[in-house]
Protein backbone atom coordinates (compact mmCIF):
# COMPACT_ATOMS: atom_id res chain seq x y z
CA UNK A 1 0.00 0.00 0.00
CA UNK A 2 1.07 3.53 -0.69
CA UNK A 3 1.15 6.05 2.09
CA UNK A 4 2.23 9.67 1.31
CA UNK A 5 3.41 11.78 -1.65
CA UNK A 6 4.89 10.76 -4.96
CA UNK A 7 7.42 7.89 -5.02
CA UNK A 8 9.84 7.28 -7.85
CA UNK A 9 10.37 3.52 -7.62
CA UNK A 10 7.42 1.51 -6.29
CA UNK A 11 4.19 3.56 -6.48
CA UNK A 12 3.91 6.89 -8.22
CA UNK A 13 1.41 8.34 -5.77
CA UNK A 14 0.28 7.88 -2.14
CA UNK A 15 -3.30 7.92 -0.79
CA UNK A 16 -2.77 10.82 1.60
CA UNK A 17 -1.44 12.91 -1.27
CA UNK A 18 -4.46 11.91 -3.43
CA UNK A 19 -6.97 12.84 -0.73
CA UNK A 20 -5.30 16.08 0.39
CA UNK A 21 -4.91 17.38 -3.18
CA UNK A 22 -8.32 16.16 -4.54
CA UNK A 23 -6.57 14.24 -7.28
CA UNK A 24 -9.71 12.26 -8.29
CA UNK A 25 -11.87 15.33 -8.86
CA UNK A 26 -9.07 17.24 -10.60
CA UNK A 27 -8.39 14.22 -12.81
CA UNK A 28 -12.01 14.15 -14.00
CA UNK A 29 -11.91 17.92 -14.58
CA UNK A 30 -8.56 17.51 -16.44
CA UNK A 31 -6.83 19.94 -14.07
CA UNK A 32 -3.79 17.76 -13.30
CA UNK A 33 -0.31 18.35 -14.60
CA UNK A 34 1.13 15.77 -16.94
CA UNK A 35 3.31 14.32 -14.18
CA UNK A 36 0.40 14.06 -11.70
CA UNK A 37 -1.92 12.58 -14.32
CA UNK A 38 0.59 9.90 -15.34
CA UNK A 39 1.39 9.11 -11.70
CA UNK A 40 -2.32 8.82 -10.79
CA UNK A 41 -3.08 6.62 -13.80
CA UNK A 42 -0.19 4.31 -12.92
CA UNK A 43 -1.49 4.17 -9.36
CA UNK A 44 -5.22 3.56 -9.72
CA UNK A 45 -4.70 0.76 -12.28
CA UNK A 46 -3.41 -1.32 -9.34
CA UNK A 47 -5.51 0.22 -6.53
CA UNK A 48 -9.10 -1.00 -6.06
CA UNK A 49 -9.79 1.80 -3.60
CA UNK A 50 -8.91 4.55 -6.07
CA UNK A 51 -10.85 2.78 -8.81
CA UNK A 52 -13.98 2.81 -6.62
CA UNK A 53 -13.46 6.49 -5.77
CA UNK A 54 -13.02 7.34 -9.46
CA UNK A 55 -16.17 5.45 -10.50
CA UNK A 56 -18.20 7.11 -7.73
CA UNK A 57 -17.01 10.57 -8.78
CA UNK A 58 -17.84 9.85 -12.41
CA UNK A 59 -21.32 8.65 -11.45
CA UNK A 60 -21.90 11.80 -9.41
CA UNK A 61 -20.81 14.07 -12.23
CA UNK A 62 -22.92 12.07 -14.68
CA UNK A 63 -25.99 12.38 -12.49
CA UNK A 64 -25.49 16.12 -12.12
CA UNK A 65 -25.07 16.52 -15.88
CA UNK A 66 -28.26 14.50 -16.49
CA UNK A 67 -30.16 16.64 -14.03
CA UNK A 68 -28.92 19.80 -15.75
CA UNK A 69 -29.98 18.37 -19.14
CA UNK A 70 -33.53 18.00 -17.85
CA UNK A 71 -33.59 21.61 -16.67
CA UNK A 72 -33.42 20.76 -12.97
CA UNK A 73 -30.29 22.70 -12.39
CA UNK A 74 -30.02 25.69 -14.76
CA UNK A 75 -27.85 28.71 -14.39
CA UNK A 76 -29.18 32.26 -15.07
CA UNK A 77 -27.33 32.25 -18.41
CA UNK A 78 -29.30 29.16 -19.49
CA UNK A 79 -32.71 30.87 -19.01
CA UNK A 80 -34.47 31.96 -22.22
CA UNK A 81 -34.18 35.59 -23.01
CA UNK A 82 -31.24 36.09 -20.63
CA UNK A 83 -31.67 38.29 -17.61
CA UNK A 84 -34.27 40.42 -19.26
CA UNK A 85 -36.90 37.76 -19.60
CA UNK A 86 -38.40 35.50 -16.97
CA UNK A 87 -39.52 31.92 -17.16
CA UNK A 88 -41.64 30.05 -14.74
CA UNK A 89 -39.32 28.50 -12.08
CA UNK A 90 -39.17 24.76 -11.58
CA UNK A 91 -41.21 23.29 -8.74
CA UNK A 92 -39.54 22.82 -5.40
CA UNK A 93 -39.88 19.05 -5.59
CA UNK A 94 -37.53 19.00 -8.58
CA UNK A 95 -34.85 20.79 -6.58
CA UNK A 96 -35.38 18.40 -3.68
CA UNK A 97 -35.07 15.45 -6.06
CA UNK A 98 -31.76 16.82 -7.34
CA UNK A 99 -30.50 17.18 -3.76
CA UNK A 100 -31.60 13.63 -2.89
CA UNK A 101 -29.95 12.28 -6.03
CA UNK A 102 -26.71 14.09 -5.22
CA UNK A 103 -26.80 12.77 -1.66
CA UNK A 104 -27.39 9.20 -2.89
CA UNK A 105 -24.50 9.50 -5.33
CA UNK A 106 -22.23 10.77 -2.56
CA UNK A 107 -23.14 8.01 -0.08
CA UNK A 108 -21.04 5.18 -1.61
CA UNK A 109 -17.78 7.17 -1.68
CA UNK A 110 -18.34 8.43 1.87
CA UNK A 111 -19.17 4.92 3.07
CA UNK A 112 -16.12 3.52 1.33
CA UNK A 113 -13.96 6.29 2.77
CA UNK A 114 -15.18 5.52 6.30
CA UNK A 115 -14.69 1.81 5.77
CA UNK A 116 -11.16 2.36 4.47
CA UNK A 117 -10.33 4.53 7.47
CA UNK A 118 -11.62 1.81 9.78
CA UNK A 119 -9.63 -0.84 7.92
CA UNK A 120 -6.53 1.36 8.03
CA UNK A 121 -6.95 1.76 11.80
CA UNK A 122 -7.34 -1.98 12.21
CA UNK A 123 -4.29 -2.58 10.02
CA UNK A 124 -2.18 -0.14 12.06
CA UNK A 125 -3.32 -1.83 15.29
CA UNK A 126 -2.51 -5.25 13.84
CA UNK A 127 0.95 -4.04 12.83
CA UNK A 128 1.50 -2.60 16.32
CA UNK A 129 0.40 -5.88 17.92
CA UNK A 130 2.70 -7.80 15.56
CA UNK A 131 5.68 -5.59 16.49
CA UNK A 132 4.96 -6.09 20.20
CA UNK A 133 4.67 -9.85 19.66
CA UNK A 134 7.97 -9.89 17.80
CA UNK A 135 9.68 -7.84 20.52
CA UNK A 136 8.28 -10.19 23.18
CA UNK A 137 9.42 -13.22 21.20
CA UNK A 138 12.93 -11.76 20.80
CA UNK A 139 13.14 -11.00 24.52
CA UNK A 140 12.04 -14.51 25.38
CA UNK A 141 14.53 -15.96 22.89
CA UNK A 142 17.32 -13.91 24.51
CA UNK A 143 16.20 -15.02 27.96
CA UNK A 144 16.13 -18.66 26.86
CA UNK A 145 19.64 -18.29 25.39
CA UNK A 146 20.94 -16.74 28.61
CA UNK A 147 19.34 -19.47 30.73
CA UNK A 148 20.79 -22.11 28.40
CA UNK A 149 24.30 -20.68 28.86
CA UNK A 150 23.86 -20.56 32.63
CA UNK A 151 22.64 -24.17 32.60
CA UNK A 152 25.65 -25.27 30.58
CA UNK A 153 27.97 -23.47 33.00
CA UNK A 154 26.28 -25.15 35.98
CA UNK A 155 26.52 -28.54 34.29
CA UNK A 156 30.22 -27.96 33.69
CA UNK A 157 30.76 -26.96 37.33
CA UNK A 158 28.80 -29.99 38.53
CA UNK A 159 30.91 -32.23 36.28
CA UNK A 160 34.14 -30.82 37.69
CA UNK A 161 32.86 -31.09 41.26
CA UNK A 162 31.74 -34.68 40.64
CA UNK A 163 35.18 -35.55 39.27
CA UNK A 164 36.88 -33.96 42.29
CA UNK A 165 34.61 -35.86 44.70
CA UNK A 166 35.23 -39.12 42.86
CA UNK A 167 39.00 -38.58 43.13
CA UNK A 168 38.71 -37.72 46.82
CA UNK A 169 36.54 -40.79 47.43
CA UNK A 170 39.10 -42.98 45.68
CA UNK A 171 41.89 -41.55 47.83
CA UNK A 172 39.87 -42.16 50.99
CA UNK A 173 39.19 -45.75 49.92
CA UNK A 174 42.91 -46.31 49.35
CA UNK A 175 43.71 -44.74 52.74
CA UNK A 176 41.16 -47.01 54.46
CA UNK A 177 42.61 -50.05 52.73
CA UNK A 178 46.10 -49.05 53.80
CA UNK A 179 44.90 -48.44 57.36
CA UNK A 180 43.16 -51.81 57.45
CA UNK A 181 46.34 -53.48 56.21
CA UNK A 182 48.40 -51.67 58.85
CA UNK A 183 45.99 -52.65 61.60
CA UNK A 184 46.03 -56.22 60.45
CA UNK A 185 49.83 -56.22 60.41
CA UNK A 186 50.04 -54.60 63.84
CA UNK A 187 47.55 -57.08 65.22
CA UNK A 188 49.80 -59.98 64.40
CA UNK A 189 52.01 -61.16 67.28
CA UNK A 190 55.51 -59.72 67.17
CA UNK A 191 57.95 -62.49 67.93
CA UNK A 192 61.54 -61.82 68.92
CA UNK A 193 61.19 -58.09 68.26
CA UNK A 194 64.50 -56.60 69.32
CA UNK A 195 64.44 -54.07 72.11
CA UNK A 196 67.04 -51.36 71.55
CA UNK A 197 68.24 -49.69 74.78
CA UNK A 198 69.19 -46.01 74.66
CA UNK A 199 71.27 -44.17 77.22
CA UNK A 200 70.72 -40.54 78.14
CA UNK A 201 73.10 -38.07 76.58
CA UNK A 202 75.48 -36.40 78.98
CA UNK A 203 76.60 -33.80 76.43
CA UNK A 204 76.05 -32.89 72.81
CA UNK A 205 76.29 -36.08 70.72
CA UNK A 206 79.34 -36.33 68.54
CA UNK A 207 79.07 -37.34 64.92
CA UNK A 208 78.64 -41.08 64.52
CA UNK A 209 78.14 -41.68 68.27
CA UNK A 210 74.34 -42.17 68.15
CA UNK A 211 72.88 -45.67 68.28
CA UNK A 212 71.88 -46.99 64.85
CA UNK A 213 68.39 -48.44 64.77
CA UNK A 214 67.35 -50.86 62.01
CA UNK A 215 63.95 -52.57 61.87
CA UNK A 216 63.75 -56.33 61.59
CA UNK A 217 62.89 -57.69 58.15
CA UNK A 218 59.52 -59.10 59.20
CA UNK A 219 58.65 -56.42 61.77
CA UNK A 220 56.77 -53.17 61.35
CA UNK A 221 57.77 -51.84 64.76
CA UNK A 222 60.84 -50.41 66.41
CA UNK A 223 61.03 -50.97 70.19
CA UNK A 224 63.18 -48.53 72.20
CA UNK A 225 63.99 -48.72 75.88
CA UNK A 226 64.85 -45.49 77.75
CA UNK A 227 66.53 -45.93 81.14
CA UNK A 228 65.41 -43.05 83.40
CA UNK A 229 67.97 -41.30 85.59
CA UNK A 230 65.34 -39.61 87.71
CA UNK A 231 62.11 -41.15 88.95
CA UNK A 232 59.34 -40.24 91.30
CA UNK A 233 57.32 -38.09 88.93
CA UNK A 234 53.55 -38.46 88.47
CA UNK A 235 54.02 -39.05 84.76
CA UNK A 236 56.34 -38.49 81.86
CA UNK A 237 56.17 -36.75 78.50
CA UNK A 238 58.22 -38.02 75.55
CA UNK A 239 58.81 -36.04 72.34
CA UNK A 240 60.32 -37.56 69.19
CA UNK A 241 62.17 -34.88 67.27
CA UNK A 242 64.02 -34.86 63.97
CA UNK A 243 66.13 -31.73 63.88
CA UNK A 244 63.68 -29.14 65.34
CA UNK A 245 60.49 -30.83 64.12
CA UNK A 246 58.34 -32.76 66.62
CA UNK A 247 57.41 -36.00 64.83
CA UNK A 248 55.50 -37.53 67.77
CA UNK A 249 54.59 -36.75 71.39
CA UNK A 250 52.83 -38.57 74.20
CA UNK A 251 51.95 -37.54 77.77
CA UNK A 252 51.13 -39.48 80.94
CA UNK A 253 53.62 -42.26 80.31
CA UNK A 254 54.74 -44.45 83.24
CA UNK A 255 57.96 -46.52 83.53
CA UNK A 256 58.05 -50.26 84.15
CA UNK A 257 59.40 -51.91 87.25
CA UNK A 258 62.97 -51.36 86.03
CA UNK A 259 62.44 -47.60 85.68
CA UNK A 260 62.39 -47.86 81.86
CA UNK A 261 60.10 -46.25 79.35
CA UNK A 262 59.52 -48.74 76.53
CA UNK A 263 58.37 -47.15 73.25
CA UNK A 264 56.92 -49.11 70.33
CA UNK A 265 57.31 -46.87 67.27
CA UNK A 266 55.78 -47.82 63.86
CA UNK A 267 58.37 -48.08 61.14
CA UNK A 268 56.15 -46.01 58.82
CA UNK A 269 56.49 -43.08 61.24
CA UNK A 270 60.26 -42.88 60.87
CA UNK A 271 62.31 -41.51 58.01
CA UNK A 272 65.98 -42.15 57.52
CA UNK A 273 68.05 -39.75 59.61
CA UNK A 274 68.97 -38.64 63.12
CA UNK A 275 66.38 -38.44 65.93
CA UNK A 276 66.30 -37.37 69.58
CA UNK A 277 63.84 -38.38 72.30
CA UNK A 278 63.25 -35.63 74.89
CA UNK A 279 61.90 -36.85 78.25
CA UNK A 280 60.12 -34.53 80.72
CA UNK A 281 58.81 -35.31 84.20
CA UNK A 282 55.36 -34.11 85.36
CA UNK A 283 55.53 -32.14 88.62
CA UNK A 284 52.77 -31.89 91.22
CA UNK A 285 51.92 -28.34 90.09
CA UNK A 286 51.24 -29.64 86.57
CA UNK A 287 54.41 -28.31 84.93
CA UNK A 288 56.98 -30.47 83.11
CA UNK A 289 60.69 -30.62 83.96
CA UNK A 290 63.28 -31.67 81.34
CA UNK A 291 64.99 -34.90 82.43
CA UNK A 292 67.16 -36.08 79.56
CA UNK A 293 67.76 -36.60 75.84
CA UNK A 294 68.24 -39.88 73.95
CA UNK A 295 69.66 -39.98 70.43
CA UNK A 296 69.51 -42.60 67.66
CA UNK A 297 69.94 -42.81 63.90
CA UNK A 298 67.26 -44.63 61.90
CA UNK A 299 68.25 -46.55 58.78
CA UNK A 300 65.55 -48.58 57.07
Quick overview:
With 300 residues, the chain is of the alpha/beta class. The chain contains five helices and eight strands; from the N terminus they run H-H-H-H-H-E-E-E-E-E-E-E-E. The strands form two sheets. Strands 2-8-7-4-5 form a five-stranded mixed β-sheet, with no helix packed on it. The chain has a three-stranded mixed β-sheet with strand order 1-3-6, with no helix packed on it.
List keywords for this structure.
5 helices; alpha/beta; 300 residues; five-stranded mixed beta sheet
In words, what does this structure look like?
This protein is of the alpha/beta class and 300 residues long. It is 47% helix and 19% strand. The protein has helices at residues 15-20, 23-28, 34-44, 48-69, 92-187, and strands at residues 195-198, 211-213, 221-227, 236-242, 245-253, 260-266, 273-282, 288-298. The strands form two sheets. It has a five-stranded mixed beta sheet with strand order 2-8-7-4-5, with no helix packed on it. Helix 4 runs antiparallel to helix 5. The radius of gyration is 59 Å and the shape is rod-shaped.
Amino acid sequence: MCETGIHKDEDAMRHEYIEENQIVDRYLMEQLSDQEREAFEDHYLHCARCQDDLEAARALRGGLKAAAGRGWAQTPSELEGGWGSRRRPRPLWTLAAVAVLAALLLLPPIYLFLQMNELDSQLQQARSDLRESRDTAEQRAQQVGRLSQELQALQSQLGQEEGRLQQQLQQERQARQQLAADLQRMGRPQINTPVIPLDALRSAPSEGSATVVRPADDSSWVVLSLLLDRTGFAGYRVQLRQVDEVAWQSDGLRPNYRDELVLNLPVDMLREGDYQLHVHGLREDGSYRPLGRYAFTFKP
